Predict the 3D structure of the following.
Amino acid sequence: MSYFVENVRRRAQTAASEPRVLERLRAIVGAEHVLVDAEKVEPYAQDAVKEKFPPEAVLLPRTAEEIAAILRLANEERFPVTARGGGVGYTGGAVPVEGGVVIGTDRMNAIKEISPDDLYVVSEPGVTTYELHRAVEAHKLFYPPDPASYKESYIGGNIAENAGGMRSAKYGVTKHYVLGLEVVTPTGEIIRTGGKTSKNVVGFDLTGLMCGSEGMLGIITEATLRLVPLPEATETVRALFHSMKEACACVARFSRARVTPVAIEVLDKNSIKAVESEFAFGLPEEAEALLLVSVDGALEEVVRAANAVEEILLEGGGFSVLRAATREDEDRLWDVRRALSPSMKKYGTLKLNEDVVVPRSRVPELVEQVEEIGRRHRTFVANFGHAGDGNIHVNFMCDREDPESIARARLAVRDTFRVAVELGGTISGEHGIGYVKAPYLDMALDASTIDAMMRIKRALDPNGILNPGKMFV
């Protein structure tokens, strides 16, 4: 039984496993790039949710033309196709819940062009975010999106999920940097959207439609991404607070001081308790919240901004304020944030990691109500995340082997989604819907809006081939 969704449909077997179909697939991508052995397909059966849905075959194409041929065959034979990037998502968006084949973009991993003059990079979908960062920074250019999984996540998956990250407070999310795409449609046509210019209003915004479409409307085979000049300097300031209300009240003060931080990360008392008990950073017991604030830009401006940040944090009730003097010091301050995920393991063997988002002024209310939800359902909960844009990661911990513990945690998740919507927010800021959040979609969207999305899906994918069993269940 699924830990998250009991009504996910599974086909026992599809045409994809038939010998004649496998032979045609081998003819398209090469026999060595069609994986059917259990041990070889297993890595493609799950994402960060850790529920396994083994595909009948994994295909590793190299070109858009090969993907197009696969999808035409899938429509002819009626077997499902699921595209997969790095497989680090938290909502099951890249797992084949209805069987069929997985298209892995592992071999489509070339950076084709970097233009310092026109500020763009052309990348295949299988390039990791980290590799792209390093490549453009060698030209003193900057690609701002930075999902936490940036060393493992693929650019194609970032676009399909419209990934965010810590730098979104200043720079926005992935969709703000996508200029154009090459996409294979569910029926096997290759289309191009957008281009290499920052302005382009020719026809419908198909680029925007594909960003955040979760692999349901097409498979991304190439992306042209906007770059900005690499900032000259960065600085980070950390402060502890006696309450989340005090910590989050500082966020609005930055704007009034004409400071736009790159990142404003907040940790609640349970997050602090978890990292301190596991890694002993020396954080005092009286700390109820921790705020990490980074600024970047020209050196003179960074010094001014960091001075202002330090002053705001102290005036706002911050204590144990630390300011990084070197890049090594900066990394040490961020170690607390990076240590969160492994430190949660002692509180449960299964983590329900939700990413609700509310107007940033209402983050303290959200955290207060979520803490009460955790107490009511007898479930350990830690809240941390992006205070700068109101996107908080709510982590409910439970026992993977205890159905009653899981049931309590899932009730806590539902109550958290309800609270987020009531506070003017929604149920996902960057993780997407997939199959994990599908049962809650109508909490965030009305019936007419969902129906419009379903009509778009049916128009582009009339046979329901591409990534079925997601979002609309």
Notes: The domain at 111-229 is CATH 3.30.465.10 (Uridine Diphospho-n-acetylenolpyruvylglucosamine Reductase; domain 3).
